[in-house]
TrEMBL record:
Annotated organism of origin: Brasilonema bromeliae SPC951
High-level lineage: Bacteria, Bacillati, Cyanobacteriota, Cyanophyceae, Nostocales
Highest taxon, organism lineage: Bacteria
InterPro entries assigned to the protein according to its UniProt record, in alphabetical order: Lambda_DNA-bd_dom_sf
Record-given protein name: Transcriptional regulator
């Protein structure tokens, strides 16, 4: 079954969430909450996926302008995403390979490998480069 994009449903979602250029931390937090709610769903409709993509772009634009990119590290980004989703080390064992490796990565004792970054990117639905050092 092929899912088709319904402009009417998309318009309703746009009306409900009213995405726009983010100008304050409060607006950013509001849109982050919507993104997290959408990401928690197992199957998004094409319209929800389009709204999610739009909101993520707006959040990225705001954060690129307002946060110093070098202020965070791959490790701090991982911890932030874990906290945002209320995840524990045990939740990442299947992604990172073993309990020992997971503990070392989460504790900042081991640098995240390219393969682990790819797996984490897929799991968190973010760009894998967030988990790699420059």
């Amino acid at each position: 079954m092929t899912l088709t994009f319904n402009p009417k449903i998309y318009s309703e979602l746009l009306s409900k969430h009213q995405p726009r250029i983010i100008k304050s931390e409060e607006e950013n937090e509001k849109f982050i909450a919507i993104v997290e709610e959408l990401l928690s769903r197992p199957n998004l409709t094409p319209e929800e996926d389009a709204v999610l993509e739009l909101l993520v772009r707006l959040i990225e634009d705001f954060e690129d302008k307002h946060y110093e990119i070098n202020a965070s590290t791959p490790h701090s980004r991982l911890l932030h995403l874990m906290e945002a989703r209320s995840l524990e080390k045990a939740d990442l064992v299947k992604i990172l390979g073993s309990r020992d490796v997971t503990a070392e990565v989460v504790n900042g004792e081991l640098e995240i490998s390219k393969e682990q970054a790819e797996a984490l990117g897929e799991f968190f639905q973010v760009n894998p480069s967030l988990f790699l050092s420059n």
